[in-house]
């Protein structure tokens, strides 16, 4: 079976073609037959394409166009033509999976795409204006290029639809619930993959484990997972809630916003920019949203960079602690994402706060840059894992259910 994954963003697109042999999925993620990336953020009206195959063939080129359909046609053409050819024709693809950021209250699991599904994705554009339109455009381009092949929508919010009302509903007026203003959560594909991968490594049933997954990248979120389901998460109605992030503030006192508006210090548009693009690590440090640059500045004695780091760690610890009561204990703590996978100091600092639970980090393992590994000592009752998140493979796994 050949599964194509299309992960369309507002300025980039990632694509993978997987081949699943036999009658079951492999126990660990396979190497894609073909991977393609498109980036049109560097030059106006120019798409940069990069393609790589499992055999080591590479292709890099630029196309002067704003047409996503044209770009997609060229990208997918490299699967069955030229030096990066891995199949004879596109009709050999059995199913196509699309990452869709927001499924709202409608979708608790992945679904085969129909006109009704596309209409629902379109209705949710106001909740994910930077992503759902691109996701929908990717679906429509896929239909145009690939014809009648089955297409599946895999929603980033779906994994969190199992969160109980007590955690999902905000303590505002009940009318908010009727207006669908609830905690949706995001990064669900990553949280689900990391939880399932952790269970695989432990050789235990996911439903028997209590796990906190920490997706720490430019965007950051936690998920509390019990009985195989998400029961709490830090992102909320939007991806702005929760942890301190690269350039997003995370949770703050809403009274600050009222104050800024009442005092006419800024407009609603200004607030949107401040909270999403000028806060977090970038806003506090005044340097960068990149943790690597923050750490380099700390080494040079920059106090604002140190403050940004300290706030980040404090909020991460606090949010991990807030997940524990609903889980009733903890079997595994998981770190993933650019920071989660690469910042050993962040992992160490986060776990030090929970030594009273028995967590003991092995310093050598923690700094070894190993992924999909336990980084605790042998006598640590709670295991800590560094997992390389593979959202594309998780999307492919979801597609396999419909084949």
Describe this protein with a few key phrases.
8-stranded mixed β-sheet; Nucleotidyltransferase, domain 5; single chain; 15 helices; 6-stranded mixed β-sheet; alpha/beta; 403 residues
Explain how this protein is built:
By secondary structure, the chain is α/β, with parallel strands linked by helices. It has 15 helices and 14 strands. The protein has helices spanning 68-80, 115-123, 132-146, 165-168, 175-178, 188-202, 254-262, 268-277, 280-285, 291-299, 303-327, 337-342, 344-352, 363-366, 391-400, and strands at residues 2-8, 12-19, 34-43, 46-53, 58-64, 95-100, 111-112, 150-155, 210-216, 220-226, 229-233, 332-336, 373-374, 383-386. The mean pLDDT is 95. Helix 1 (68-80) packs across helix 3, helix 10 (291-299) crosses helix 11 (303-327) and helix 11 (303-327) crosses helix 13. Helix content is 37%, strand content 21%. The strands form 2 sheets. It has an 8-stranded mixed β-sheet with strand order 5-4-3-2-1-6-8-7, sandwiched between helices. A 6-stranded mixed β-sheet has the order 11-10-9-12-14-13, with helices on both faces. The longest helix has 25 residues, at 303-327. The termini are close together. InterPro entries: Ac/propionate_kinase, Aliphatic_acid_kin_short-chain, Aliphatic_acid_kinase_CS, ATPase_NBD.
